[in-house]
Amino acid sequence: MLVLTRKTGQEIIIDDNIRITVTACGDGRVKLGISAPSHIKVDRAEVAARIAAEEADSVVELACR
């Protein structure tokens, strides 16, 4: 894992086409803006886990038919 320190307005660039910008800091929170090509999925971890669980349930449901 790479750990970086950034200030508001500064960016991290991944693979020349994904930009993560620190938009605000404070109250124990950091707000990030993420720009990525439309074919790259960007989700919070809990949302990605929920989607994966729903997809797994769908696969099991189809297999039981």
From TrEMBL:
<dbReference type="Pfam" id="PF02599">
    <property type="entry name" value="CsrA"/>
</dbReference>
<keyword id="KW-1005">Bacterial flagellum biogenesis</keyword>
<dbReference type="InterPro" id="IPR003751">
    <property type="entry name" value="CsrA"/>
</dbReference>
<keyword id="KW-0963">Cytoplasm</keyword>
<comment type="function">
    <text>A translational regulator that binds mRNA to regulate translation initiation and/or mRNA stability. Usually binds in the 5'-UTR at or near the Shine-Dalgarno sequence preventing ribosome-binding, thus repressing translation. Its main target seems to be the major flagellin gene, while its function is anatagonized by FliW.</text>
</comment>
<comment type="similarity">
    <text>Belongs to the CsrA/RsmA family.</text>
</comment>
<keyword id="KW-0678">Repressor</keyword>
<keyword id="KW-0810">Translation regulation</keyword>
<protein>
    <recommendedName>
        <fullName>Translational regulator CsrA</fullName>
    </recommendedName>
</protein>
<keyword id="KW-0694">RNA-binding</keyword>
<dbReference type="InterPro" id="IPR036107">
    <property type="entry name" value="CsrA_sf"/>
</dbReference>
<comment type="subunit">
    <text>Homodimer; the beta-strands of each monomer intercalate to form a hydrophobic core, while the alpha-helices form wings that extend away from the core.</text>
</comment>
